[in-house]
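Homework help board

Subject: predicted structure for assignment chain

Our instructor gave us this sequence and asked us to write out the predicted structure in token form, then describe one feature. I got the tokens but I'm not sure how to describe them. Can anyone check?
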Amino acid sequence: MTEEERAWLAGEGGPGLRKAMEIVVALGRIYGAADTVAVSSVQVAGVSYKNLGDAGLDFLREWAAQGARSRVPAFLNPAGMDLRDWQRLGIAESFARRQLEVIDALTAMGAAPVCSCTPYLIGTRPAPGEHLAWSESSAVSYANSVLGARTNREGGPGALATAITGRTARYGLHLPENRRANVLVEVRCPVRSEADFGALGYLVGRQVGQAIPYFRGLELEMSDGGIPPSADALLRALGAAMAASGAVALYHVEGVTPEARAEDMLGADVQRVVIDSLAAGYVALNTTPLDGIDLVSIGCPHASADEVRMIAEQVSGRRLAAKLWVTTARATKERVPDAVATIEAAGGLVVADTCLVVAPIEELGIRRLATNSAKAAFYAPGHSHVEVRFGPLAQCLEAALTGRWPGKGA
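My token output:
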């Protein structure tokens, strides 16, 4: 440790800073870190009151009362509700009050009240090699894989401790030698839609766990200027699914992601996985067959501005038969007011600050869900006690318009 860090550990910066430094040091010792590294930004998880409960809220309040304050830019994972329009969602006032108290405690420690799993879409886009302490699994995957930044998947207290100290223990994916792929995934079937990429991610994550996969055979349309929005959305779906069914925090796609271009990123002694069909992924992500649909949820990870506009085009001038939530960052919602108005004129809602996975869906009378997100389809049955239909965006929007899942099977 540096002299400054030793002083913090001794309590010279106050009890809140000392607690944060104790957490950073404890994590470093657990994982065998030689030193710490400064980070440029922090994403804090454990924001939804649904997950925190009163015990978590009391912990945050106590830490804030000890004078803990962030030293680097910090922002938040999705909360359990839209922080402004929670009443439109049917959220109970008792839940809303507690959720707002969670936000108050976090902002008292210097975190910005920006609740999104896609901070890279709304102004926080780290450079290759930049060290971070991000928490939400799909954001961690994207930062490492698509942007080439360096972050482990932080827990809530660990991320907060890093925000307060500005440092994290240098271990795991902060070290270049730990970023090489150790599983070669050969894709031998068509993978086209966002749901296909989600089904692929589900299958791979389930097989490789915490490993680092290197994909060969994925066809993505690329441009000279980098990864275009269409391919970017597919990579977000892939990473989110692998982080949900497994614990993949970094992956490489041959010819696409930045570190996949390094000659030594794929070693000679690697496990080999062949994917020749997505059928098992679709079967696993669909529960018992459903006809009627209560809610269609799009935006897990949070929808981009392009995706919100695309949905608006599909529902323009029509009337929905089922509830539709398009979840996104507040900054994205404010960027596309015309698309938001079109979706809401059709009967849908563009919902900021939250997502299906961390919202109290089970208290809103929702029993049958449709989504194009493999991550949401994976978590929703257990987290929200709903039945799920999983498929491409076109099928999901058809279900929103008719109130029924189109066709038979997946």
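Reply (TA_rk): Your tokens look well-formed. For the description, you could write something like this. The chain has three domains: 3-176, 180-282, 288-402. That's the kind of observation they're looking for.
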